[in-house]
Design brief:
CATH topology of one domain: Alpha-D-Glucose-1,6-Bisphosphate, Chain A, domain 3
CATH class of one domain: Alpha Beta
Distance between the termini: 48 Å
CATH superfamily of one domain: Alpha-D-Glucose-1,6-Bisphosphate, subunit A, domain 3
Strand content: 15-25%
Structural class: alpha/beta
Length: 516
């Protein structure tokens, strides 16, 4: 086994026993259930505890019974400290309400929940995860029959009901797990084989096998590990090495992120340093990674180093257009903060673009119908038409490997070719700390407030959008300010096709415009 545990590792010890105690017996009053773009999330204890899991599960059970939703519910989670416990709690509550539950014996990646729903084996899912957040965090996501993140009308309904049960926990139904199994209400199942077989219809593993590119894959201590192993075996990928098999709820083998926190983010250069070192050494030409719940991807190459998600998305889209020759009328989906180079690629190919608010739930319909050839977001999430309606980091890693295998070129070189054709954008995302008062003021801003704004950094203002923060579209650039829903920060995005100097001007003027 190659040692990839390099970099600035955590120096403090996470008290697992204390976190477990906080999960079952929080030292302060539990916070209300609040679904963000993809579920309820918080620090173990008051932010997320056993009562949150029980309350959400009971709310889901009530909804399924009331709406006469038939079918088993897939319940599981990733490799976090309390993911398994959260899944078992949910299973016990659902079973007590007479609902059937599929409870796998292994950790389950987020895209596999979606796959199982869309395959028809289950009708919905509850997923215990906090994605790539620090180890002390925990969360719970609900996916309905669409396979994707639940829309606002469903999450609002779950929130309201769950908060009723948070205040009245004695009304939550629950039975022991063994009793539920004996009654046939909770059962395990093979969730690896169906996904691995199906992904072979989306990825050309024959091309990957023939190219023999030396490949390193890092599951970042997460639920993807068993799936990478199974894919390697199923498709005979002898040149692929799973370079880390560490599973530890403290994630102490992951180098610290930019802010000194343990964060299993495959798009950040800091947690990805071990893989960057491997490709830099020449030991591997390609390295891929996915976060603990497998919905985000990371990519590094020997020639390009860490590939920014925006670059990878553009390369994937360009390749898919060339390989599949999509029909007129199809679109590519991107979120508000994702590069507009996608728009230029689509325009040249006669395809449209669907721009949505941040949140993969806005892509569900288009992915399901096949209207969207690909959907992606700058935070390293993507999926394909007629595949899963969640982000799939495993699929993304192998699609990027297929591209290098099929073209014989480095991902970084392919991106440069795209920029030669359409222009090279300068891009920045800055997470800026703000006061709660500033955050509140930003949330109140509307497009009408900027009606008198005619130009920014010498570029004419074309339009302003206020559906998710404030986005100002310029002639060859754009800027976006989005207050975080959970932290006292504003996410400030800018992009310009007029180069880095123009980007700097937009950042400076944008800060004044938004008061940040």
């Amino acid at each position: 086994m190659i040692n990839v545990n390099a970099g600035k590792l955590p120096q403090t010890t996470i008290n697992l026993e204390r976190l477990k105690e906080e999960f079952y017996n929080p030292s302060s009053a539990p916070a209300a259930v609040k679904f963000g773009t993809s579920g309820h999330r918080g620090v173990l204890g008051a932010g997320f505890c056993a009562l949150h899991a029980r309350a959400v599960a009971q709310a889901v059970a009530d909804m399924h019974i009331s709406d006469k939703i038939s079918g088993a519910i897939l319940v599981g989670g990733d490799t976090r400290l309390m993911s398994r416990a959260t899944a078992q709690i949910c299973a016990c509550v659902l079973a007590a309400n007479g609902l059937k539950v599929l409870l796998p014996d292994i950790a389950v990646p987020t895209p596999v929940f979606s796959f199982e729903i869309l395959s028809g084996r289950v009708c919905a899912s509850l997923n215990g995860t906090a994605s790539h957040n620090p180890p002390q965090d925990m969360g719970l996501k609900y996916n309905p029959a669409s396979g994707g993140p639940a829309p606002a009308e469903i999450t609002a309904r779950i929130e309201k009901s769950a908060n009723y049960y948070m205040a009245n926990p004695q009304k939550i139904k629950e039975i022991p797990l063994e009793d539920a199994k004996e009654k046939g209400l909770v059962a395990a199942a093979d969730i690896i084989t169906p996904y691995v077989k199906a992904v072979g219809k989306k990825i050309n593993f024959k091309v990957i096998k023939a190219a023999k590119i030396k490949t390193a894959v890092h599951p970042m201590g997460g639920a993807s590990l068993a799936f990478y192993d199974a894919i390697k075996k199923e498709y005979g990928l002898d040149n692929l090495d799973v370079v880390s098999r560490d599973i530890d709820p403290t994630f102490k083998f992951i180098p610290l992120d930019h802010d000194g926190k343990t964060r299993m983010d495959p798009s950040s250069q800091y947690p990805m340093k071990p893989l960057l070192d491997l490709v830099a050494s020449g030991a591997y030409s390609f390295a891929g990674a996915s976060d603990p719940d497998g919905d985000r991807f990371g990519c590094a190459t020997s020639k390009g180093g860490l590939i920014p998600p925006n670059h990878a998305l553009c390369v994937m889209l360009d390749y898919l257009i060339r390989a599949q020759k999509p029909a007129a009328g199809m679109k590519a989906g991107r979120t508000l903060g994702t590069t507009h180079l996608i728009d230029k690629i689509c325009a040249a190919a006669g395809l449209g673009v669907l721009e949505v608010n941040v949140g993969f739930k806005y892509f569900v319909e288009g992915l399901s119908s096949g209207e969207l050839l690909m959907a992606g977001e700058e935070s390293a999430g993507m999926s394909l038409a007629k595949w899963v309606t969640e982000k799939d980091g495993i699929l993304a890693v192998f699609l990027l490997l297929e591209i290098m295998s099929a073209t014989g070129q480095d991902i970084a070189g392919l991106y440069e070719q795209i920029c030669e054709l359409h222009g090279a954008p300068a891009y920045a995302r800055i997470d800026m700390p703000i006061t709660e008062q500033m955050k509140s003021e930003l949330k109140k801003l509307t497009a009408a407030r900027f009606a008198s704004l005619k130009e920014v950094a010498g570029e004419r203002v074309l339009k302003v959008r206020d559906t998710d923060g404030i986005k100002i579209y310029l002639e060859d650039s754009w800027l976006l300010a989005r207050p975080s829903g959970t932290e006292a920060i504003v996410k400030f995005y800018c992009e310009s096709f007029r180069g880095p100097r123009q980007l700097d001007k937009i950042i400076a003027e944008g800060g004044k415009i938004f008061g940040i």
